[in-house]
User: What shape does this take?
Amino acid sequence: MNNFLIPDILLLALPFVVIGSHFLFPKRHTVPFAVGCIGFLGVFVMLNLLVLGETQTFLSNWKIDSFGVFMREVLILAALLGIWFSKDYFEHDADGKEQLHQLPEFIAAISVATFGGVTVVSACDLLTLFLGLELATIPMYALAAWNKSDPGGSEAGTKYILMGSVATAFELFGFSYLYGFSGSMKLAEIATAVTQNGTSPLLWISVLFLICGIGFKLTLFPFHTWAPDVYEGAPTPVTAVLAVTSKAVAITFLVILVFGPFASIHTQLIPFLSILAAVTILAGNLGALKQSRLRRFMAYSSISQAGYILLAILGPEIVAKSAIVYYLVVYTFANYLAFFVFGIIGQHRTEGFDSLRGLSKENPTLAIALTIAAFSLAGIPPLAGFIGKFMLFESAAEAKTYGLIAFAVLNNVIALYYYIQLIKGAWVDPPDENLPRLEVNKRQKFAVVVLTIGVLFVGVVPFLSENIRNILAM
Amino acid sequence: MTLQNCLILAFILFAIGTWGVLRRRHMVGMLISIEIMLNAANINFISFAYFKAADATAGALFSIFVIAVTACEMAIALAIVITMYRRHHSLDVNQLRDLHE
Assistant: This one.
């Protein structure tokens, strides 16, 4: 028995188990949620028990290496936090919208999307890669339009599916040229063909199409315009899932391509990727400056974060992969921490900067958590975000793109400005007596405390990043 | 019928699809344009498989998978379009103006 496959099989079965548990106990609404949480936790624990270091393959097109295991852990952590965060939105209305319905299906959609991410990271041929990517995005379209009673939700869903399908068409067209160029579906054989003939026009047309397609999904600069609308219109938990899971899947896809088939033309790709990273960071930062609504603000913030993550791809394989894994963990923690705070605020208030007023007086714990999340996203030492950004820059520095790094660091100053706007809202602005009181339930309190400790702990403890790199280098 | 003809046909179809997505203001029209783009890629796959590839079955299989995946995508798209229609009683994308800066 190939026991390294067990976590994947369990993850594949999880959506069906969650929906099945709903049919078995239709009266008890907590059962599917509990099953989902226990399922994700179980898969996470099993992944940690796997022996890391060697690449194992199943049926020649499903491979599990240490990068794959790390990415699985990140994705499952994100999914677990996602369903933990979304539970509240199924119990009461929030942010002026009606409550969501069909929690079991919601959890199932998130776990299918997570399995899509797992498929992308395990893929050894173009077909598996394509199926994984679609498996990860199609549930997201449905999730964005989950709240049928909300006009914003259906508008977000429409925009997302139109843009996403065009991106899929571009990717597919790129894949078809790549297949025509190499005559094979296997990523390893494509890599050989690319090594032998790295200047073929067919190859570069395919690279162009693929970068366009992935640009949509990773919200890179010219293709990012859908993101703010979709992030604002989708229900808040879906925004959180989109910002973390779909971005992680997209960056994984890029890593698989750049360090797989395109490994031998990596140096020629660096100029394109650097320009994309630079303009994405700038566009995200400039867009975030003038926002007054929190979810739209988080959309622009996540666009600029995508640019920062793209910096890491410029570096050599091991450094880049470890930086990306580490940064994604940090980003997941900090982003979900911010979203939990926004979720608590948005329960009775509108999700805007004005609703943050007087937070430090009313609930200091939340204000501290928000400060830590914002400083970590901005990359202030000693928080986890600083070490994460440091590793991203280190990876880019290995490619000797010093000008780009200087540009990115200067841009961090702009980022700091708008993240400090959050903190100013919570600590400095005078309290507004008309705002409704905040209610924090046990589940939210637990998550906020755990994530705050996580962001602090991961930054202060240095061995985690070293461990990731050592295991990837094995 | 050569490989070149097929590739040119696929590229023209892809261009028509892209043009349609950019120009059409009707949601179903946009979805049809996207479908044309995806099928252009299918023609590419099949023609490469027929004329060129060492591994010809893979290309043909890929297009079958693409058709299946596209069907799923369109099912979700049409479901979203229906919720849209219930709200606005129109499928004109110019009405999508609730979310903006």
In short: Residues 53 and 474 of chain A are 6 Å apart (CA to CA). Chain A has 19 helices and two strands. The mean pLDDT of chain A is 89. The beta strands of chain A are 56-58, 62-64.
